[in-house]
Design goal:
7-stranded antiparallel beta sheet; 6 helices; 24 strands; about 325 residues; Jelly Rolls; 6-stranded antiparallel beta sheet; 2 domains; mainly beta
């Protein structure tokens, strides 16, 4: 019998990273290094999440989806799968990330890459935290190309000041960057293809400038994508608290859920889903028993593990990820 899974995080050192993931979520970051990313659920070659809990502890996610595909996925994805469809991370941006773009699906393969659509949920932010998403209204391809050459291309990007609770959807082709000062929960396609447009004239961890990918970027950017807005804060009251739809895309659906103290919520039956706690702690009950998770942890609930419910001793908030429709 399968059961809800928690995985060992995979930490990534980044020139723009810091230590906030440890401060907020008590994760055991390697000492003395700027950690920018904690990969919570990953099925990337060389970076495959290892199961942390239960009888299958020590097995990895790729083994799980290869050997138990029907029980994990149900009928949400074509079988047999080549990999788990999502990559889920926590990001700590203490400095600005590179201005970048991910290739659209229709051209990714011919450039040797993979499409990557993602969403950012701001879990924590300083008062001046910001993001860059899309182009300023009226910027032309010719202007963008000229400013890329003279080092002023950041002037073309649409800047948004953000606060905790803000969310941005980033489909492939939308130029973007995290600014400094935020901690982000990121839900994305299983892809690691990024084309850098500009890296703020800084050097990487090795003391050398990081590679730029101007030709690929120019082919990938949607030059009609002007000044996208944050996801509206549409909150829907429920018997257990509230829900807020964030993303409804064929690749994934994401809902922000709030559960009031001593309330519980029944999760979807017969559907693969991921629960990622933004704060607090929760008990997950299923036919396999009871398991507690806390803020900063993500849990994969296979489709075959049903019925499943989540209960809060104290108030909590979480992201609820399900297959797209």
């Amino acid at each position: 019998m399968l059961y809800p899974f928690i995985f060992e995080p995979i930490f990534k050192e980044r020139v723009w990273g810091g230590r906030r993931i440890a401060e907020l979520y008590d994760k055991p970051l390697p000492a003395g290094r700027p950690i920018g990313e904690s990969w919570e659920i990953s099925d990337r070659p060389g970076d495959i999440s290892v199961i942390k809990n239960g009888p299958l502890a020590g097995r990895d996610l790729h083994w799980l989806v290869t050997n138990h595909a029907t029980d994990v996925f149900g009928d949400a994805f074509p079988l047999p799968p080549t990999h788990f469809p999502w990559l889920i991370k926590i990001l700590d941006a203490q400095d600005k990330l590179s201005l970048q773009v991910h290739p659209p699906a229709e051209i990714a393969a011919e450039m040797g890459g993979e499409p990557k659509t993602e969403m950012w949920y701001v879990a924590a932010a300083t008062p001046d935290a910001d993001i860059f998403a899309g182009l300023k209204r009226g910027v032309t391809r010719a202007e963008f190309e000229h400013k890329t050459a003279d080092g002023t291309v950041a002037e073309c990007f649409h800047r948004i000041v953000v606060k905790p609770g803000d969310c941005m959807f980033l489909r492939s082709g939308r130029v973007h960057a995290l600014g400094a000062g935020s901690v982000i929960f990121e839900i994305q396609q299983n892809s690691d293809t990024t084309y850098r447009v500009f890296d703020w004239n800084r050097v990487g961890l090795d003391g050398k400038p990081r590679d730029l990918h101007i030709e690929q970027s120019m082919r990938s950017i949607d030059f009609a994508d002007f000044e996208p807005e944050l996801v509206p804060p549409k909150i829907e009251p429920t018997a257990f608290g509230s829900t807020r739809p964030l993303v409804d895309d064929p690749l994934f659906r994401v809902t922000k859920v709030e559960i009031q103290p001593d309330k519980s919520m029944n999760l979807d039956d017969a559907t693969m889903q991921v629960v990622g706690l933004l704060n607090g702690s929760a008990k997950i009950t299923s036919p396999a028993g009871e398991l507690e998770i806390r803020g900063g942890q993500f849990m994969l609930i296979p489709a075959a593990v049903s019925p499943t419910a989540i209960k809060a001793a104290e108030g909590l908030e979480f992201l609820w990820v399900r297959p797209g429709e």
